[in-house]
Design brief:
heterotrimer, A mainly alpha (249), B mainly alpha (250), C alpha/beta (252), A: Fumarate Reductase Cytochrome B subunit, 6 helices, C: alpha/beta, Rossmann fold, 2 domains, six-stranded mixed sheet, globular
């Protein structure tokens, strides 16, 4: 087994262990919160997923930009993989948010600015993923996806500012009491939060990498098919060929 | 694959970067954009399909909304601006799709790409054309809205005009570029709204709040709303400038 | 170059003498994902040559033409334009390229004249009207100038397409199967136009799958198959205008 594969196998193991450890930390190490008590523990998953999704979307935009500059399909594959993982984490945020809100406010959706903003993000990245499935031409698909991915990412702060202003005009319950997780937090809670965030980051890396591998394999398969067709058509044509996508291992 | 460095160098040498054409002058960019805008307007005047269909559709939407609640009550003041802008958004998404589909008929897009013009001129020309068509639709619709929902628009007309201009720009700039994106996709009639509407959330919110502020019982100048709209327009325009060239490449 | 027995004064539409544009391909290839539309190809076309591209469908003719027309970016390798005045940058070359493709590249909802006016503006022609009038005359469409292109027959559209391509007096004309859909009369007309152009010094690169008069005008034929050049024949002992270009990588 190559070094690369061994490393990734170990990373996957690490992800599993770390998530399990985080689970333990969330339930048994983190102190009980004063007002919200047990339900508050969902905050660790909620915030970690949100931060990781943010990083994912940055990778999507970066991958898209690199693809447009270098025209190497692997950048688009990386962007897509990060996009899918980021979308999954965003979904977690959108699910844990209402679960958190219900016991406290009695309603599932409070038009909390952060959650509303997350919902818009979720829609944009759903569109990003759908766009890829609706374009048949591979070259075009990568270009179109990259353009939209960059556009969506640049739009993120604009959406945030507008929604924040909007909810300022029409105040409504804010989930989490509006406390910034980074400050004003009990030290143990902070530690558990960052520990959980680390776990989600490793999980994100593993998920992205697996998805990326799938695209690499698809690319290799297509190249092999093409070579087979070439050599079937004219026997000497394949002689000058070389694999288009070097195996990454 | 060729060594990355070599291919990059080759690409630079062979790069038909039409962006280098624009280094000559901005007046040329605008003159080319104007020529394309004129072409779009001339086509529209000849076929008249886009404007009329969109105007009628928007009318239908506004009319249908009024059946969902009693339009003469004070509630209509609250919901009116939102409904108006949603109607404009729907109108916009409908009329944006043909922008680039029209160029596929005889591959006229290739002819535009062949010409020694900045590719951005193509986007600019079409965006301005879409802006013109949408703003005409809005101008026709505002009086109808005022009548149906019993809202007085004359006192705040300058403010409303400004909100409409900035808001419409906010719709057509991303809209035109996404029309270019979806021109090659399946299900493009559904895909364009799907791509566009989430991105337009800031425009919708800012435009609605600004319109509401202008039409309220104590009208006030919606400074923050206008700032957000202007900011959105500038951001969209800048990003579109950098990305459009890539969309045209083969 | 074979001199044509035709003095410019005899036909008012005879194009002015142009300094033809030459192009060199250096290991140019084009891939669409795993598909190799054009394998690494190196060749050179001299200013004033009339080159015919022959080959079955999918042999890479259209790909080669699109790359030469700057419509398509090569996946590898590079192209370079030259004239007797020296190397030409891409923006400069773009002004001197004329393209006739499968599609007409005309707006159906505009008149013939409006179409030409639009492209005249885009090519920044100084005084657009004379060139437009001249082109309409030459293509025999002057009487139909105010009619919508939608009402034109295939032959008439082809004439207008060529008029559009020649409007800015190109030094390099690229044609992709221009005889498709043309009746024998149309082919004759096209052959006449190309002969005129060729004699004025314009470089012509044309792909065709038909023989006939149009093909017989070519001074050189390139035969392609599966994305590579199989045969390169110089037909009439064409005298090159420029020395072969220096290999890429050498100081230029």
């Amino acid at each position: 087994m190559s070094l690369n594969r061994t490393l990734w196998l170990l990373t996957t193991l690490l992800a599993a262990l770390w998530m399990a450890a985080a689970g333990y930390a969330i339930f048994f190490v983190a102190p009980d919160e004063a007002t919200m008590h047990a339900i508050q523990r969902i905050f660790y998953i909620h915030v970690s997923s949100a931060w990781t999704a943010g990083i994912a979307y940055f990778v999507v935009a970066l991958g898209g930009a690199l693809y447009l500059i270098k025209r190497d399909p692997r950048y688009d594959w990386a962007a897509l993989s990060a996009g899918e993982a980021g979308f999954a984490f965003t979904s977690v945020v959108l699910i844990t948010g209402p679960i958190w809100a219900k016991p406290i406010w009695g309603i599932w959706w409070t038009w909390d600015p952060r959650l509303t903003w997350t919902f818009v993000l979720w829609l944009m990245y759903a569109a990003y993923l759908l766009l890829g499935t609706l374009v048949d031409d591979k070259q075009r698909r990568a270009t179109l996806r990259s353009v939209y991915g960059i556009f969506a990412f640049v739009n993120v702060p604009l959406v945030w500012e507008t929604i924040r202003w909007w909810r300022g005009q029409h105040p409504s319950p804010v989930i989490g009491g509006g406390t910034d997780p980074k400050s004003g937090l009990d030290p143990t809670m902070k530690a558990v939060l960052f520990f959980t965030w680390g776990a989600t980051l490793v999980l994100f890396a593993v998920l992205t990498r697996q998805r990326y591998r799938l695209e690499v394999l698809r690319g290799e398969l297509a190249a092999l098919r093409q070579q087979a067709e070439d050599s079937a058509a004219s026997p000497d044509a394949a002689a000058g060929g070389r694999p288009l996508v070097e195996s990454q291992g | 694959m060729a060594t990355p460095l070599q291919s990059v160098r080759d690409r630079e040498v062979s790069s038909a970067s039409s962006a280098s054409v624009s280094s000559s002058s901005t007046p040329r960019l605008f003159s080319a954009a104007w020529a394309i805008l004129a072409k779009e307007v001339r086509t529209e005047l000849r076929t008249r399909e886009l404007l009329i269909t969109t105007a009628v559709f928007t009318l239908v939407v506004v009319f249908m909304f009024s059946f969902s609640f009693d339009p003469t009550s004070a509630e209509s003041r609250r919901f009116g601006p939102g409904l108006l802008w949603i109607a404009f958004l729907f109108a916009g998404t409908l009329m944006l799709e043909p922008s680039f589909l029209r160029e596929q008929a005889n591959d006229t897009l290739a002819a535009l790409r062949l010409a020694p013009i900045d590719p951005y001129a193509i986007l600019l020309g079409k965006t301005l054309a879409n802006f013109l068509f949408l703003i005409i639709t809005e101008t026709l619709l505002l009086p109808v809205f005022a009548v149906l929902y019993n809202v007085s628009i004359l006192p705040s007309l300058p403010g409303l005009a400004l909100v409409c201009v900035l808001g419409t720009l906010g719709i057509v700039i991303p809209g035109t570029i996404f029309a270019a994106v979806t021109a090659h996709a399946r299900m493009r009639e559904l895909l364009l709204p799907l791509l566009l509407l989430p991105v337009l959330v800031p425009v919708l919110i800012a435009a609605t709040e600004s319109t509401a502020a202008l039409l309220s019982d104590s009208p006030e100048w919606p400074v923050m709303g206008l700032k957000l709209l202007a900011g959105a327009d500038i951001i969209f325009l800048t990003v579109a400038y950098f990305l459009f060239g890539a969309l045209l490449e083969e | 170059m074979t001199p044509t027995p035709q003095s410019p004064a005899a036909s008012p539409a005879a194009p002015a003498r142009v300094a033809g544009l030459g192009i060199s391909f250096s290991a140019v290839e084009k891939r669409y994902g795993p598909v190799r539309a054009l394998r690494p190809t190196s060749l050179e076309i001299q200013p004033g040559e009339f080159v015919a591209l022959l080959g079955p469908n999918g042999s890479g003719k259209s790909t080669l033409l699109r790359i030469a027309a700057l419509l398509s970016r090569p996946s590898g390798g590079a192209i370079r334009f030259r004239s007797s005045a020296g190397g030409e940058s891409f923006p400069a070359a773009r002004r001197r390229l004329g393209v006739v493709a499968h599609a007409t590249m005309l707006y159906d909802d505009l008149t013939a004249e409006e179409n030409l006016r639009l492209f005249a503006r885009l090519y920044e022609l100084p005084s657009a009207s004379p060139a437009i009038d001249a082109r309409l005359q030459a293509s025999g469409l002057a009487a139909r100038r105010s009619d919508l292109v939608r009402t034109f027959s295939r032959g008439m559209r082809q004439r207008l397409t060529l008029a559009r391509a020649l409007l800015h007096g190109p030094a390099f004309l690229l044609l992709d199967e221009p005889t498709t859909g043309l009746d024998p009369g149309g082919c004759d007309w096209l052959a006449g136009e190309l002969r005129l152009l060729h004699s004025s010094g314009c470089t012509i690169l044309m792909s065709t799958h038909q023989g006939g008069e149009v093909l017989s005008l070519a001074t050189r034929t390139l035969s392609l198959d599966s994305g590579r050049v199989l045969r390169d024949e110089n037909r009439t002992g064409f005298q090159p205008v420029l020395p072969p270009s220096a290999p890429f990588g050498a100081a230029s």
